[in-house]
Amino acid sequence: MSALSSASASGRRLRAGRRSGVGVTRPGLVWAVPATVFFLLFAILPLVLVAVLSFTSWDGVSAPTFNGLDNWTKLLHDPVMTQSIWLTLVLTVAGVVVQTPVSILLGVWAAGHQRNRAVLSAIFFVPLLLSATAISVVWRAILDPNFGIPSEMTWLFGDGNLMGSQSGAIAVLTFVGMWQWTPMHALLYQGGARAIPQVLYQAAAIDGAGKVRQFLHITLPQLRNTMITSMILMLVGGLTTFDTVLILTQGGPGTDTTNSAYYMYQQAFKSFDFGSGSAIALVLVVVATLISLAVVRLSGYDKMRSTSEGL
Amino acid sequence: MKRRAFAVALGLSLATVGVTACSSGASAGGSNTIHVLVYGDASNKVEKQIVETFNKTSKVKVVLDTIPGADYQSKLNTIINTPQAPDIFFNWGGGSIQPYVKADLLLPLDDMIAADPGLKGNFLSSVFNTAVIDGKSYGIPMRGTQPVLLFNNKKVLADAGLSVPKTWDELLNAVTVLKGKGVTPFALGGGDQWPTLMWYEYVFDRVAGPELFQKALSGDKTAWESPESKKALGMLKQLVDAGAFGSNFDSVKFTDGGSPALLAKGKAAFELMGSWAYATQQDANPDFAKNDLGYSNFPAVADGKGDPADVVGNTNNFYSVLKKTKHPKEAAEFLKLMYSDEFVKAQLAIGNLPTTTNTEQFLSTAASPEYSKYQYDLVKAAPSFQLSWDQAYPPAATTPIHTAVQQFFSGKLDVDGFIKAMQALPAS
């Protein structure tokens, strides 16, 4: 009896303790108000408005008029739209494929303690400090067919008509994107590589593993979560690539590099057809969300395990 | 309980934001000012001067708002139907103001013209008519005219033993000779797309006369499949296939200095470009502009219906007045300054060519008198001055036009494909 009562008393105490603990560690919902309001105002509300606009015809001047599914059926049969989704995916995948290996190598190298590492890293990170506009303008000049590098290296570039063909323009966009974004991802990998416990390398060295094996069997697996983070950033960035397209190719030649983000801009702010523009924007939101969800699911990012010392 | 507090807080903050947004909107548009919105560039110097002149004597003051060029049309379109809208704004006439006329936002200027006939009579009519829509006048010319000319590098032509082509056959001959010398016959900033369009505008005019495009613009889409249209397209195709523009024109731009450099450095012999190219060359290659930059009208086409004196380009820029302005009288007084001697002299001094009837007497004061006189005589003698296609159509058609002209030059569209693309343009 006494044992029972003491047990229940301790249980009560425990419960009471837990309750007070909740009060201390979990702030009330009111604290979430500022962030929530901003999110609702600047993300959800515009999204809803865009959804409504996608069912209207609006030139931005007269009042919007509802036109039912017109924008959507038009979009469904629009070869430029179909092509733009395909182009968006090509640019995104090319971005991931080209940027990932380069930034892993750079990042892991930058995580070491070699001579001149700090100086060289600082130089490598310069593109990160430049605006996308400046980068695009500079590369446009460097790649000018008559006065840029192509005119000096005709054995490689031929007549230098890089922006005049679809494959050339896509290659330029991918290359400039790599030049611009590799530093940021290298920075992520540098942080990730620095966090790998040295004991793993020491153990591997004792077992006779060389630099390459250490890289393949310790560094790469340990960078798994960093890779997923970096890839999601690349995917989202790739899907919304806009500024480089605007300045380097203007979606051209013709519509050959008109990706979805640029097509949205063109419809809404060049042709003043905000209805179609909104519909494209919604498609982009849905596609980007689906892809991000798929990556999170497939990679196991949602149940990410700690990679702390000793695994 | 907490959840309700949260919801209330949310509702309150939303309401506050909504209220502030409204109040800030209503405060714009002062009572004793006229807001004038203009395209921001080097010409603003004159606009500022004219505004100062006006403000010296007027009780209602003009405030000049400049929007950096590339964003002008987007900004205007965003604010024109809001309380932030200006009273008077810069535009290109034609299709660029048509959506606003349709939305009943613009003030027809016919009453002003009835009170002061000079507001119409003091301007060259081929220019003034660009801003006449459905028989009503909506714009007063307020800058210089910009006809498209065939610029050339005199030195390159002399080295090749060529003279300026007067006919299409001479032009084709020049292409063959120049190609043999390893010179690109025509510099073309295809990356910008609108320089490519200029070739269509002239060839269509020379082959079919200005009527074909007017017919198409007014909604008769059969114009595009007429034999003249097909002939013009065939001639353009022949030119491209002969290598008249080289092979990498789609990677070259006028706007970043690419194609003007080709002409100035003698890598190309000609460039078809708006009259502003003269100022561009003066700025980037002063020696070339002074010694070797030549210019001529587009050559004639044998058996063509178009008058070889016709020109195409931007007729001028215009000031239009919004219907809801509180000061239409003062606006009219301000517009009258656009044919004043002071205005004409100031425009000429910065290299623009105004289109007033009194321009002629001041031509000798221009920055480059010879060039100004050439242009003025050309425009004055032109039976037709066709506004650039991408300005004649409403803004919604601009991108499809640019895409189609680019794709036809690059071979992605054939004649039928181009005709279909033009027939699919949104009707005016």
Automatic annotation (TrEMBL), chain A:
<feature type="transmembrane region" description="Helical">
    <location>
        <begin position="85"/>
        <end position="111"/>
    </location>
</feature>
<keyword id="KW-0813">Transport</keyword>
<dbReference type="GO" id="GO:0005886">
    <property type="term" value="C:plasma membrane"/>
</dbReference>
<keyword id="KW-1003">Cell membrane</keyword>
<keyword id="KW-1133">Transmembrane helix</keyword>
<protein>
    <submittedName>
        <fullName>ABC transporter</fullName>
    </submittedName>
</protein>
<feature type="transmembrane region" description="Helical">
    <location>
        <begin position="272"/>
        <end position="296"/>
    </location>
</feature>
<dbReference type="InterPro" id="IPR035906">
    <property type="entry name" value="MetI-like_sf"/>
</dbReference>
<dbReference type="InterPro" id="IPR000515">
    <property type="entry name" value="MetI-like"/>
</dbReference>
<feature type="transmembrane region" description="Helical">
    <location>
        <begin position="232"/>
        <end position="252"/>
    </location>
</feature>
<feature type="transmembrane region" description="Helical">
    <location>
        <begin position="28"/>
        <end position="55"/>
    </location>
</feature>
<feature type="domain" description="ABC transmembrane type-1">
    <location>
        <begin position="85"/>
        <end position="295"/>
    </location>
</feature>
<feature type="transmembrane region" description="Helical">
    <location>
        <begin position="118"/>
        <end position="142"/>
    </location>
</feature>
<keyword id="KW-0812">Transmembrane</keyword>
<dbReference type="InterPro" id="IPR051393">
    <property type="entry name" value="ABC_transporter_permease"/>
</dbReference>
<feature type="transmembrane region" description="Helical">
    <location>
        <begin position="162"/>
        <end position="181"/>
    </location>
</feature>
<comment type="similarity">
    <text>Belongs to the binding-protein-dependent transport system permease family.</text>
</comment>
<dbReference type="Pfam" id="PF00528">
    <property type="entry name" value="BPD_transp_1"/>
</dbReference>
<keyword id="KW-0472">Membrane</keyword>
<dbReference type="GO" id="GO:0055085">
    <property type="term" value="P:transmembrane transport"/>
</dbReference>
From TrEMBL, chain B:
<keyword id="KW-0732">Signal</keyword>
<dbReference type="InterPro" id="IPR006059">
    <property type="entry name" value="SBP"/>
</dbReference>
<dbReference type="InterPro" id="IPR050490">
    <property type="entry name" value="Bact_solute-bd_prot1"/>
</dbReference>
<feature type="signal peptide">
    <location>
        <begin position="1"/>
        <end position="28"/>
    </location>
</feature>
<dbReference type="Pfam" id="PF01547">
    <property type="entry name" value="SBP_bac_1"/>
</dbReference>
<protein>
    <submittedName>
        <fullName>Sugar-binding protein</fullName>
    </submittedName>
</protein>
